[in-house]
Amino acid sequence: MGKNMQNLKFSKTHEWIEVDGDYALIGISDYAQHHLGEVVFVDLPNIGDVFQKDEEFGAVESVKAASDLMLPVAGEIIEINEKLNDEPNLLNSSCYDNYIVKIKIIDINEIKDLMNDGEYEQYCKKEK
Amino acid sequence: MILLEKTVLYDIHQSLNAKIAEYAGFLMPIEYAGIVIEHNAVRNDAGIFDVSHMGEIKITGLEAEKFVDYLVTNKVLGAEKNRVIYAMLVQEDGGIIDDLFVYKLAEDEILLVVNAANIEKDYKWIIEHKDNYKVNIKNVSDVWGEVALQGPKSSMIFEEYTKLSTNDFKFMTYKKMLINGTDFIVSRSGYTGEDGFEIYGKNADIKRIFEDLVYKYNVVPCGLGSRDTLRFEASLPLYGHEMSTTINPFEAGMGFAVKLDKEDFIGKKALLKVKEEGLKRKLIGIELIEKNIPRAGYLLYKDDVCIGEVTTGYLSISLDKPIALGLIRADCANIDSEIYVAIRKKMVKAKIISRQFYQKNYKR
Fold first, then answer.
1. What is the CATH number of the domain that holds A28?
2. Which chain B residues are closer than 8 Å to A43 by Cβ?
């Protein structure tokens, strides 16, 4: 189990993205899940919805608060992780093995703006 | 630079690994083991809260009782001595300045317990309205600490700890008690919907009680996170959410604490008028029909028209459903009627329900 972290890119709003050709999986980082606390609800978008880069496409919610999810690159939702409806805290126990949505990427060039694993780690240190 | 205040228990919160954040100018514990664990401890067993951030204002003098009766909405003059009086301070226009507890400690000595966020505002307001009353007004918030022991097992724990009986100790009454040789004011009251005790004393003494109960009696320390989920389920209002200077006591559903038959009090005229003209807005309960979580500030719609907003909302821990309190137009406030909550980009279907979400377990 476990993802090869080298294949992931990260956004400043703490989403990870794993690109596979024209498609990508998107989830939240370990830093994000830790910060949120126990996730009690994930508000998922509908299949077919299209979002711009950095547009809010849903939310992860703890007891106390809702945190918006932002799409790291523009895309169309082609799959949602329905397991999260019943077990939202999978995002706590194993955030890299549980994606939130799968998208069809609109412009692959937008990936370039994102951070790699090492850069993201540095970024999180600064956030603290 | 604004310096954040710490309660006398700050070091203990740190050693208990609490998640600490700013609340009303104080560095307060939000959670220790987790909001859900703490919430359930209070519902099923017992928990203890540091609420030393609450403000205490003392009114002394020959006309103390008369003055407080004029200041607040509820009846103080002639009220039973040992009763805890819940009341509000309101503006001349009826808007709520704060909600508070009134303790008549003696003929000429009254203690007001106010919200942390409102201490300065209340104190100033009270001084400004002293007029010719023969009273002294003193903000003793820095000297007084407070802890709240809450939950169905709190009386058992309290008796064991104090070696005092609680049999004749009714909810919403208070006593001056000597606990292990030290004087405290103990109020059988709380902010959770459960039985419990709110204990007031000097800072050092309050620290000892908290330490004893947590370390020797294994009472679960609870933070402001669970304090809010608990008070919400019991439909108890929080200033800044269900109450503000633009909301009057009747709109907030607190009419029981307004005594319009009193001779006079600040705001009486305006509140009489509200009563005469009827309510324009009302605090209601909301339950989502579709899965989501309603949060404070989300707007409420009926037939595409905005009719109000959510004041507090959660995925209720004890009831396991998404519910909220909301302030809406009174003509839309019928139970069972369908409304919509605007959540991010969606309109989520909901219905209006009774505000009595959770059945309170008080010892009457």
1. 2.40.50.100
2. 292-293, 343-344
Q: How many CB pairs under 8 A join A and B?
A: 36
Residue B358 in domain: no
Question: If we measure between CA atoms, which residue out of B30, B25, B28 comes closest to residue B1?
Answer: B25
Residue B288: which CATH number?
2.40.30.110
Residue B243 belongs to a domain: no
| Predicted complex ipTM exceeds 0.85 | yes
What pLDDT digit, counting tens, does each position of B211-232 carry?
999 999 999 999 999 999 999 9
Report the C-alpha gap between B309 and B267 in whole angstroms: 25
Whether pTM exceeds 0.90: yes
Of all residues in chain B, the one with the smallest CA distance to A46 is B346
Condensed to tens digits (0 to 9), the pLDDT of residues B31-64 reads: 999 999 999 999 999 999 999 999 999 999 999 9
Is B313 among the domain residues? yes
**Identity of the residue numbered A128:** K
When scoring A64, A68, A87 by the number of chain B Cβ atoms within 10 A, the one with the most, hence best to mutate, is: A64
